[in-house]
Structure formats: structure tokens, C-alpha cells
From TrEMBL:
Protein purpose: Catalyzes the sodium-dependent uptake of extracellular L-proline.
One Pfam family cited in the UniProt record for this chain: SSF
Main location: membrane
Annotated transmembrane regions: 6-28, 76-95, 126-145, 165-185, 190-208, 228-251, 272-298, 310-336, 371-389, 401-420, 427-445, 457-479
GO cellular component: plasma membrane
GO biological process, one term: proline transport
InterPro entries: Na/Glc_symporter_sf, Na/Pro_symporter, Na/solute_symporter, Na/solute_symporter_CS, Sodium:Solute_Symporter
The organism's place on the tree of life at top rank: Bacteria
Source organism per UniProt: Psychrobacter frigidicola
Annotated keywords: Amino-acid transport, Cell inner membrane, Cell membrane, Ion transport, Membrane, Sodium, Sodium transport, Symport, Transmembrane, Transmembrane helix, Transport
Location(s) in or outside the cell: Cell inner membrane; Cell membrane
UniProt-recorded name of the protein: Sodium/proline symporter
Keyword Methyltransferase: no
Length: 499
């Protein structure tokens, strides 16, 4: 083992020990019931809420996918960042306070399917079952996307096999999620968010310094291809809309909005918003800057870069000492693992509450539900590893499909359930089904327009979100008004928000 690898392993080893240690601490601190394991007892502070939401949101695509997009296509990638920033801000304004209040009013809903079923008093369980299926389907793909990042990290930086990277990444995440539940996931997310922020500042700063500054780097990129500096290069109006539309997905991402359900008080939401948005803006700018500097650095050093999504790894290997390099690699793992842990917990919670308890054991004790949740964490992790077994998978591509699926199926449903009292159960079911099926057919149906796959022509979340919205309004208006008890809970939520 050479010196560089040894130093890297020291840093990574320390990181793994800290993550597992937090999981053990959370195991002894949390209450042994479903609300404690799946929602942390609704007692997260604003800083933990904000960084936990941010870290679980960004995943490996922040350090791999987005820099790779900037490297390959230039500043047109800024459109994604603009869309995401806008969507995240509106999520804090529209969804966060209302969802925190409403989930408690709606019979203390713990999962998103729980909330949908209780919000509309759906005794048929249709809403709960369909939403659980959507979560299990799209999150399995999403988790696989995150594991791809872990496999690439181990393969590119540690000279280990892609398969080893998958299993090691999943193993550590499963360890602390299995025992510590939501509290461990949120606490590790906070630490991981701090590590990611540091990495997204130090890497581009050192890279620009090595290249002679921002002006010199920009000139070098211009010499490579002037179109890389054109924010509309090769873009159509629909292309720009597609990139901006990533922001629509925020309203429907269960692993993000579950943090709003867990914050200790609605009064803490503004503080969480300020912390979260500051973290996000700095991180996105750092990610884009890394890809931009990377294009000039590869040209300057005359190296060959086969996969643009590994440009962050290149900088960690060539610009930093072994120990710092290991810390920066830990930042990638932090981004990957924070998302995986959140996704695993959301899926396991849904499998427990919305599948096991509903269909197999309605009288399940709190301790049995926690046990089933832990078993589900392991099962979902294994399935995701199998799906991620192809090392040629693109992190950004896989994430985009899952993001669109949740954005179309849940985003309109979440927003209108929190803001429109006339919405009813039938409209909720129609919107969710139409949104999910639209994305599935748009991405995997094999349809083309002018010889171009539909998802390349227009991002699936756009038609999915639009058709889901239309379905919610049309079906809600054409069918009966909500029950008086449903309307009463809506009015109670509104009165609390206005206080």
C-alpha cells in the first residue's frame, strides 16, 4: 500500500468510525417506538433540520453529477442550479410550515402515505397503498443511483473494485441507519453536510489558484470551446424549461420533506430556511466551479478523463496531501451516504407502516414495528446494490429519473393538499397515478419526437407535474366535496399557520 493510499484510508477509516459511532449513540438516545425510530420524536432543531434536508437532498450528484455536467456542457448547467435553488426556497415557504402542523393534526402522521391517508380520511387505504408503491419503486432506483457514486469513488480513487465500493458504502450506511433510525440519519446528515460544505469551498478555491485565478481559468476554457461560456449554447426553450423544472421536484421528495415533519416547532422553520438556503447556494456554486475549473485543469495537464463525473476525484488526487485527499473523498461519501440513509429509512418506514402493519399485522406493537423497519432497511439495501451493479450507470441520469417520478407523483399532491381545501381523495388518487404513469411512460416507454427520446426533448417532470395538477383539479371538482371533518382539520391548520 503506497503512502497516498495509506493516508487516504486513515481519513476514510476515521470517517466511517464517526458515522457508526453516531448510530450507536442514537440507538441509546432514541425512544424505542415507531415515532422515535422513523421521525426522531419530532424534535429536530433548525440547524440539524436544514443540513439534514440539504445533505440528504444533494447526494453524490453534487460532487459527481453536477461538476461532470458543467465539465461536459459548460455554463448551461447553471439552469439546473437556478431551478433547484428556487424550488428549495419555495419548499421552505409553502410546504415546510404547513406540513409540520398538518401531519400532527392529521392523527400524528409519521410517513408521507400516512399523511395522505389521514388528510383525506381515506378508509379504503387506496391512497396509502399507491403512495407506498411509488415510494418503494422510485426510491429503490434513487438509492441505486447513490450507490453508483460510491462504487465509482472506490474504483477511481482507491483502486478497489466497483463491486467492493457498492458493498462497503451500503454496509456502513446500513449499520448506522439500522440501529439509530431517524435520529442517527439526521445527526450524521448534519456532520456530513458540514463536510460537504467545506469540500465545496476548498476544492474550487485550490483549483482556481493552481490555474492562475478565475480570469486565467475562464480564458483557458474559452480557448477550449467558447460555447462552454454561453449559457444558452445548444439550448432550446424547452431545454431551459427542462433544467429549471428540476425545482418542481422539491415539493414531492419524501426524504426531504420528512425533515419538515420532524422539526420541533413550526416557529423554527424560518431559521432552518435561512441556514438551509445559505448552505445550498454555497454548495451549488462550489460544485459548478469545480466542474468549470476541471475543464481547464485537464487541458493544462494533458490528461485523459474518460468520465466527466470523476473530475472532483481528479482534484482530490492531484492537488492535496493524502490526509486532506482522504477528507475530501469522505465528503463524497458523505453526500452519497446521507442520501442513501434517508432513502432507506423512508422506504423502510413505508414498508413497515403502509405495507406490514396495514396488511399483515394491524395490531403490531411499537417494538415489532421498529424491528420490521430494521429488517426492511437491509432488504432495500440489497435490492439497490443489485440494481447498481452496472458500473457504466450515470449518477445524474438515474437521479433525474427518480427525481422526476417523485416530483410528478407527489409534488402537486403535497402542494394542493396543503393549500386547497376543496381537494378530495379522488383528486389525490388521480393526481398521483397520472403523475407517476406519465413519468414512467415518458422515460421508459420508448417514445420519440423528431427522432429524439421524449425525456431528452422535454424532462419528464414537466408533463408529469402538469398532467398531475390537471387531474387533481378536474377530478376534485367533478366529484363530491370533502367531508366536513376533513375541511375542519384544514381550517385548523390554516389558523395555526396564521398565528
Amino acid at each position: 500500500m503506497n503512502g497516498v493510499s495509506s493516508g487516504v484510508l486513515v481519513s476514510l477509516g476515521a470517517y466511517f468510525i464517526v458515522m457508526i459511532g453516531i448510530g450507536i449513540y442514537a440507538y441509546f438516545k432514541q425512544s424505542n417506538d415507531s415515532e422515535g425510530y422513523m421521525l426522531g420524536g419530532r424534535n429536530l432543531g433548525p440547524a440539524v433540520t436544514a443540513l439534514s434536508a440539504g445533505a440528504s437532498d444533494m447526494s453524490g450528484w453534487l460532487l459527481l453529477g453536477l461538476p461532470g455536467y458543467m465539465y461536459a456542457d459548460g455554463v448551461v448547467s447553471i439552469w439546473i442550479a437556478l431551478g433547484l435553488t428556487t424550488g428549495a426556497f419555495l419548499n421552505y415557504i409553502i410546504v415546510a410550515p404547513r406540513l409540520r402542523v398538518y401531519t400532527e393534526i392529521a392523527d400524528n402522521a409519521i410517513t408521507l402515505p400516512d399523511y395522505f391517508a389521514n388528510r383525506f380520511e381515506d378508509k379504503s387505504h387506496m391512497l396509502r397503498v399507491i403512495s407506498a408503491v411509488v415510494i418503494i419503486l422510485f426510491f429503490t432506483v434513487y438509492t441505486a443511483a447513490s450507490l453508483v457514486g460510491g462504487g465509482k469513488l472506490f474504483e477511481s480513487s482507491l483502486n478497489l473494485s466497483y463491486s467492493t465500493g457498492l458493498w462497503v458504502t451500503a454496509g456502513v450506511v446500513v449499520a448506522y441507519t439500522l440501529f439509530g433510525g431517524f435520529l442517527a440519519v439526521s445527526m450524521t446528515d448534519f456532520v456530513q453536510g458540514v463536510i460537504m460544505l467545506f469540500a465545496m469551498v476548498i476544492v474550487p478555491v485550490v483549483a482556481f489558484t493552481d490555474l492562475g485565478g478565475i480570469s486565467a481559468t475562464t480564458a483557458a476554457v474559452r480557448n477550449i470551446d467558447p460555447n462552454l461560456l454561453n449559457i444558452t449554447s445548444g439550448m432550446t426553450i424547452l431545454g431551459i424549461i427542462s433544467l429549471l423544472a428540476w425545482g418542481l421536484g422539491y415539493f414531492g421528495q419524501p426524504h426531504i420533506i420528512v425533515r419538515f415533519m420532524a422539526i420541533r416547532s413550526v416557529k423554527d422553520v424560518p431559521t432552518a430556511r435561512n441556514i438551509g438556503m445559505s448552505w445550498m447556494i454555497v454548495s451549488l456554486l462550489g460544485s459548478l466551479a469545480t466542474g468549470f475549473a476541471g475543464r481547464a485543469y485537464v487541458q493544462k495537464t494533458a490528461m485523459t478523463l474518460d468520465d466527466p463525473e470523476t473530475i472532483f476525484l481528479v482534484f482530490t488526487q492531484f492537488l492535496f496531501t493524502p490526509l486532506v485527499s482522504g477528507f475530501l473523498l469522505a465528503a463524497i461519501l458523505a453526500a452519497i451516504m446521507s442520501t442513501i440513509s434517508s432513502q432507506l429509512l423512508v422506504v423502510s418506514s413505508s414498508l413497515t407502516k403502509d405495507v406490514y402493519k396495514l396488511f399483515f399485522d394491524r395490531e403490531a406493537s411499537e417494538s415489532r414495528q421498529v424491528m420490521v423497519g430494521r429488517i426492511s432497511v437491509v432488504l432495500v439495501a440489497v435490492v439497490s446494490i443489485l440494481l447498481a451493479s452496472d458500473p457504466e450507470s450515470s449518477v445524474l441520469s438515474l437521479v433525474s429519473h427518480a427525481w422526476a417520478g417523485f416530483g410528478a407523483a407527489f409534488a402537486p399532491l403535497v402542494v394542493f393538499s396543503l393549500t386547497w381545501r376543496r381537494m378530495n381523495r379522488n383528486g389525490a388518487v388521480a393526481g398521483m397515478v397520472v403523475g407517476a404513469l406519465t413519468v414512467i411512460l415518458w422515460v421508459y416507454g420508448g417514445f420519440e419526437y423528431n427522432g429524439m427520446p421524449l425525456n431528452d426533448w422535454l424532462y419528464a417532470i414537466v408533463p408529469g407535474f402538469a398532467l398531475s395538477t390537471i387531474a387533481i383539479f378536474a377530478v376534485s371538482i367533478m366529484t363530491g366535496a370533502p367531508k366536513p371533518s376533513v375541511s375542519a382539520k384544514f381550517e385548523e391548520m390554516e389558523s395555526i399557520i396564521k398565528e
